[in-house]
């Protein structure tokens, strides 16, 4: 059985999409990050980095439970376990390259753009500009790559498409533009239209909506999400 630890956000929904696409049995376990559940000792034993998503596979090929964290690692593990959405063998180098492009570039810069525009104190224009521009630059790289092609890697739908979709789905928040945020990138717009038409996308959103997470960014939530004390976060003292 797969035990999927999730919370609201672009990284967990990538895993929800994979699970919806494949139909493999799983248990969804919510981790309420605004309440600080990611810092609890029990969850830190699964992901010492204290972030969602995480996965425990009690029926792993090794014969002992497999514990994973980080959405890219989980996508690779699940696709290898099921033999699905890995693309053709000759596309493996490109698959790894684009997965890392998303994991180390598109995702982090988008996340920091969201933080400095929506959560950080005002007056940090340099940081806002830095992360907005880098998010937009990564959008442009991917937009250029998608010229004349439907999928990011090869001729088939892969986990690279799932991974990119998770972050591009948050473009409105990344760019602070609610109306057609991807209008400057026609290939990304086309890509997202294609992705959102997949039945599994609606199913993935339903998985994410099974639990009513705390959504109010009050002082407790701010301390849980952006701890001012390294010790309190690392030792899991918040609840």
UniProtKB/TrEMBL annotation:
The keyword Transferase applies. It comes from the Bacteria. Keywords: Transferase. Pfam families: GST_C_2 (PF13410), GST_N_2 (PF13409). One of its GO terms (molecular function) is transferase activity. Residues 1-86 form the GST N-terminal domain. CDD domains: GST_N_Ure2p_like. Residues 88-217 form the GST C-terminal domain. InterPro entries: Glutathione-S-Trfase_C-like, Glutathione-S-Trfase_C_sf, Glutathione_S-Trfase, Glutathione_S-Trfase_N, Thioredoxin-like_sf. This is Glutathione S-transferase. It comes from Acetobacter cibinongensis. The gene is yfcG.
